[in-house]
Amino acid sequence: MEYQVEVKEGGLRRLSCAFSASEVLAEWKKAASVFGASFRMTGFRPGRAPLEVLERQFFQQISDAATDALVSRGVEEMLARESLRPAAGLDYEGENAARGKEFRFRADCCVLEEGELPELDSLHVIEEEPQADPVQESLFVRETLGRAAERISVTEGCPQDGDVVQIEVTGKMDGCVVPGMKTGSCRMRLMPVRPGEKVPDLDPVVRGLRVGETGSGATRCPDNYPDPSMRGRDIELVVTLRGIERERLPQLTDDVARKLGFHDAEAVRAAAHARALEMDRLRRLSEARRALKLRLESWEGFDAPDALVHRCQREVMRHSRLYLRSQFESPESLKESLAVMKKEAEETARGKARARALLLGWARRQGVEVPDGEWRRVLAGRAARRNMDVEGYRRSLARTGELFELHAAMLEERALDELMKRTLRP
Hints:
Structural class: alpha+beta
Order of helices and strands: EEHHEEEHEEEHEEHHHHHHHE
CATH superfamily of the domain at 292-425: Trigger factor, C-terminal domain
Shape: globular
Strand content: 15-25%
Radius of gyration: 29 Å
């Protein structure tokens, strides 16, 4: 194998790699042997079919597997020899390998340059004392008693707190259905609204209906809705109530508690209190983590490499494009929305890239890594969901570049967790 690494501006490295015809042949035979092991053909013993016969049956599969293996091997060797750690996915350029021919490919890789980083350990994130919400405690008690409840279908009257309702919701604007706001039949539980808490827009509409009735309410189109022209405008919510299911809960007594697996009624209340306390602790921790990430995204005086910003912008636009294409039939409407979102995507991407660069740089300085066991479990789980063997799946991800994006994203999250532990203050 021969390779070359070309340094480009903005943290970009261009990796060029070449394999000789003999190296290609070796990988080609390995790929073919996998298919030959299970191939059955009259006149040949299992696993003994000639390469030419296997190529007639599995040429594309052999070509893909051999190419994945060569690219995976080439990229990983280049990165290891040059001590490069991708900060995002790779962009692969090249055709499939062919038996008897030299194989060349190229891949663009974004890396973080060595340089000074801000002192992230100086950050302070306030850790608030968790408080068990009494309403949440009562809901947990209700949930526990629900395991012994009698469930009945209600046909008279309107829904109440705790009822599970079956509804259909359609969002309309100017008489037309808003893309992405037609639910079909769905179920939801009506929860009590605490004093000072915002009432969900659907709640008063649903509570005023009887089974079979249709009512309407209003909501505001969110500021992050993919079509910018609709943000902030009023949306009419058309709601049809299809059914009500109500629970008849038993009284919380020691006998009922023991049937549910508790020592007594007080043990049920204690468990509910502990769950409410833990729920509030996790909520506060999640909010603090989100606040820390936002501070990193908006860090003044530090810019991420242009290559990383560009990569993040492509990902933001890709997700937006996929969503908008599924929602808009008019090419003109799609084009207008994408034009507006392109500008927004650049700002979003700069923040995401800045946070990733800061966290990956901090992780390198502190020696934070993704544990091998965790990395293998993630790959194994993803491979299993696709009915693929782990090694074949890993090689395919290396070829597309997704393998390195996945690893960088996992390292970013792990670094954020470690940074949280050091910056939390009472």
